[in-house]
Amino acid sequence: MLRFVKTLGVRNQENIERWSDQVKPAIGGLGFYIIFLLSITLHQFIFSYEASLIDFRFTGIIGATSLGFLMGLADDAYNTRPILKFLTQVLCGVILIYSGTCIDIFESDLLNYGFTLMWVVGLMNSINMLDNMDGITTTVSLVIAFTMLVLMIDSNDVGSLGVTIIIGLIASLLGFLYFNWNPAIMYMGDTGSQYLGILLAALSINYLWNPVTTDEFAVSRQILMPLISFIIPIVDTTTVTIKRLRKGSSPFVGGRDHTTHHLSYLGLTEKQVVSVIALISIISSAIVIYVINSITKWSHLYTIIFIAYFVLIFGVLFIVANKNIPEDE
To answer: What is the pTM of this model?
Structure first.
């Protein structure tokens, strides 16, 4: 792909959306999607007749993921308008809801549908915005995917299509990380970030958000576990949005004001920034796995502890993002 695809997703050198000024092909997303299709195709062959059939819910996930991939591909090739991008993201969420992948947290179906759409659209944009420095989005997505794989295995869901897809996702991310590690020789582009955003959103609904437990304070656990799992993209997007709205600029325009950039402004190398982000992601992953597998009775104390953890990470990164601001930011 590096030999034959030299210009897909290449941005103008004056574009400040990325941290690096170098122009490199954004073809990682194509590799992700190829492995995604191979995972689906090989699922029945791997597990033979013991495998669960591809039901309507996973058909919807496949359709929504494919649509997200195509939208990202079009954006890399043609720089599509933001409104078209947003409407396509909403349609991805509608496909998931229609096929049965929906967050079940409220008694009202309309509220569940609205919350699902907000999660899908928000996560697709968060993953996209996080792709601003070599290896960041790849590493964070790897940890999140591994978290869900552990939860699937612990729930004896080994023969499902979801496990096959997650294994393929982890493999493709590991392979891509070799080329995306600083100094990167390729990017994933919007093709890759939109694919990752919709796929991780869909799988997180099935394996992190649902099902609702019967404990008295299970709703708080149901909300906190996905938020902690995706703590880095959520905190980064929220921080950047707040900063840009304060300055009167659009949150959807690229820039070098992300939390990752400000860690670099503090003096960390790009590899050290990735290591810090990876450490936070791994700690968060360990918390989620421990809570879901070991804590059977929820209480107010757990709610306070894990809200405090989320606020601590958010607060530290937010403070860092508001100090040592370069003059050209």
So the answer is: 0.86
Number of other residues whose CB lies within 10 A of the CB of residue 321: 23
Torsion angle (degrees, nearest 10) of CA 134, 138, 143, 144: 130
Instruction: Tell me how far the alpha carbon of residue 22 is from its chain's centroid.
Output: 24
Q: 284-299, pLDDT tens digit by residue?
A: 999 999 998 888 788 8
**Tokens (6 digits) for 110:** 């309309």
Percent of the chain residues past pLDDT 70, beyond the cut: 84
DSSP state of 187: B
- Residue 114 token pair: 């609205």
pLDDT tens for 191-229 read 999 999 999 999 999 889 985 444 444 788 889 999 999
DSSP code at position 1: -
Q: How far apart are CA 250 and CA 269, in angstroms?
A: 28
Measured distance CA(58)–CA(185) in Å, rounded: 34
- Whole-Å CA distances, 17 to 4, 39, 52, 96: 25, 32, 43, 30
Per the structure block, which two tokens stand in for 42? 């090989």
Burial 269-292 (b: 16+ CB within 10 A, else e): ebeebbeebbebbeebbebbbebb
What the block records as the tokens of 192 is 């890759």
